[in-house]
Design brief:
By secondary structure, the protein is mainly alpha-helical. Helices cover 59% and strands 0% of the residues.
């Protein structure tokens, strides 16, 4: 989402943050045979997100769901820690407005492959490629 001045919001999770968060999430998911170890990690990560200012109802919902997954013995083998970090990462990208750029680049690439037509056949849509009108 763009701010009122037209600039994009800065992402709250940097590259170093993501490397450590994903690395430890993978590690704790591999060590998932130890009961409640993943739930403790998810609690620590939730605290880190709170310190970074990522405190909204969507993050809280994902936190509750993944903590629930980690506390049920048979289901705790699912990679809930990694799911929590990945979902929070995607929320951070979406809130910064970068997701729109990714989608626009994907549409441009698909349009180039389709020869300027997003869909072929009846009802095809002309899509401008990088600001140029499709033929």
């Amino acid at each position: 989402m763009a701010t009122s001045s037209g600039r994009k919001k800065k992402r709250k999770l940097g590259t170093v943050d993501l490397v450590f968060l994903y690395g430890f999430a993978f590690l704790f998911d591999l060590l998932g045979i130890v009961p409640l170890l993943g739930a403790m990690y998810i609690g620590v990560v939730r605290f880190v997100f709170w310190l970074k200012g990522m405190n909204n109802s969507l993050i809280n919902t994902v936190f509750a769901a993944t903590t629930g997954i980690e506390t049920i013995p048979a289901i705790s083998l699912l990679p809930a820690c990694t799911i929590f970090v990945f979902t929070a990462h995607m929320i951070d990208i979406a809130q910064s407005g970068e997701m729109g750029d990714v989608v626009a680049e994907g549409v441009d690439a698909a349009s180039k492959v389709a020869g300027g037509k997003l869909l072929s056949g009846p009802g095809s849509v002309d899509v401008p490629i990088s600001g140029k009108k499709a033929a």
